């Protein structure tokens, strides 16, 4: 079972026009919905996050403020660079890139720009952190307090968006995966199964665990770098078993599920790869779709390798 092939196939599929069309059709309305929810509940949520901030020592708030501000600057650098590239090169892109590949090129461009600025930030992190810390030392505590409270409120609404997207792909999987099967495995006789994997109850447990751990580990979100690692773990935990079982309930027998679960490395790697997309502006809406596609190809690769499906 070649994980590399699974990964490459999944990238190709998630960047294909039919999948991108579905992603945008689901992601954009959901994003606008959460903007509306954020607008309605902004004041009570920022009041809550400001209250939490007031319990923290200034040095902790300042350190996290420096890290959050650096992330915000990175975010702006990605957006501005992307806007400039599109402004200067959009005409050639439209002229020389096929219409069905245009969206894939744009998404790839965002990924490359994000990676570039991440490398710049990593290389110059010491200087960036020192400069931002000096800036925060000049500001009154109230300014830092309000700024971090604002970012925490955005974080809460952002997680609401991610969880909503996860739930949609979880329960909308059948037509989505069926279309992938017909396109990528048309030469194989793959029959759907109706296996009770308990993915719905598992999703509920994982979501409950995600919420409880987010609350219990909340103080650690004020520790630079540690907060990123914790968030990555929580997102990965949320999707690892639920999305895998949701695919397996349609295309895998009980014996196959047990064998694949023994390869925990594959399941965690897929979950982490997909969750990393949540840190990238715009591309984040691909995250649960990418995970679902990777789990699908992992199961198909396993069944073909074991001879459990035959060519037509």
Secondary structure: number of strands: 2
How large a portion of the residues is in β-strands, by DSSP E? under 5%
Share in helix: over 70%
Please list the strands of the largest sheet in the order they lie side by side.
1-2
**What distance lies between the first and last C-alpha atoms, to the nearest angstrom?**
21 Å
Q: Mean pLDDT across all residues, rounded?
A: 81
Task: Give the uncertain stretches in residue-range form.
Answer: none
| Estimated structural class | mainly alpha
Give Rg in angstroms: 21 Å
Shape: globular
Number of domains: 1
- Give a short account of the largest sheet: 2 strands, antiparallel
Order of helices and strands: HHHHHHHEHHHHHE
The helix tally amounts to: 12
Secondary structure elements and pairings:
Blueprint: H1 3-14, H2 17-54, H3 58-96, H4 99-123, H5 125-138, H6 141-171, H7 173-184, E1 188-189, H8 199-216, H9 226-251, H10 254-261, H11 264-276, H12 287-305, E2 310-311
Antiparallel strand pairs: 1-2
Helix pairs in contact: 1-12, 2-6, 3-4, 3-5, 3-6, 8-9, 9-11, 9-12, 11-12
Describe the fold and architecture.
This protein has helices spanning 3-14, 17-54, 58-96, 99-123, 125-138, 141-171, 173-184, 199-216, 226-251, 254-261, 264-276, 287-305; strands at residues 188-189, 310-311. It contains twelve helices and two strands, in the order H-H-H-H-H-H-H-E-H-H-H-H-H-E. The protein is globular. The protein is an all-alpha fold and 312 residues long. It has a two-stranded antiparallel sheet. It has one domain (3-311). The chain is 82% helix and 1% strand.
């Amino acid at each position: 079972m070649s994980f590399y092939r699974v990964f490459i196939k999944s990238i190709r599929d998630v960047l294909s026009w039919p999948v991108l069309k579905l992603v945008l059709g689901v992601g954009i309305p959901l994003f606008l919905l959460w903007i509306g929810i954020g607008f309605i509940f902004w004041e009570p949520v920022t009041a809550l996050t400001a209250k939490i901030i007031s319990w923290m020592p200034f040095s902790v708030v300042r350190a996290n403020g420096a890290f959050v501000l650096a992330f915000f600057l990175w975010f702006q650098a990605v957006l501005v660079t992307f806007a400039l590239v599109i402004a200067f090169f959009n005409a050639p892109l439209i002229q020389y890139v096929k219409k069905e590949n245009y969206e894939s090129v744009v998404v790839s461009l965002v990924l490359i720009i994000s990676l570039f600025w991440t490398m710049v930030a990593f290389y110059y992190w010491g200087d960036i952190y020192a400069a931002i810390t000096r800036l925060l030392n000049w500001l009154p505590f109230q300014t830092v307090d309000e700024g971090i409270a604002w970012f925490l409120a955005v974080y809460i609404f952002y997680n609401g968006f991610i969880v909503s997207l996860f739930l949609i792909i979880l329960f909308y999987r059948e037509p989505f995966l069926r279309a992938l099967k017909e396109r990528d495995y048309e030469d194989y006789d793959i029959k759907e199964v109706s296996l009770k994997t308990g993915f719905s109850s598992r999703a509920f447990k994982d979501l409950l665990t995600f919420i409880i751990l987010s609350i219990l580990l909340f103080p650690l979100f004020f520790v630079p770098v540690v907060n990123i690692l914790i968030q990555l773990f929580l997102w990965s935990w949320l999707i690892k078993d639920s999305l895998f079982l949701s695919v397996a309930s349609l295309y895998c027998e009980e014996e196959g599920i047990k064998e694949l679960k023994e390869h925990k490395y594959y399941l965690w790697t897929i979950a982490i790869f997909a969750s990393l997309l949540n840190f990238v502006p715009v591309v984040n809406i691909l995250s649960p779709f990418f995970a679902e596609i990777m789990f699908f190809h992992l199961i198909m690769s396993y069944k073909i390798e074991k001879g459990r499906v035959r060519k037509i």
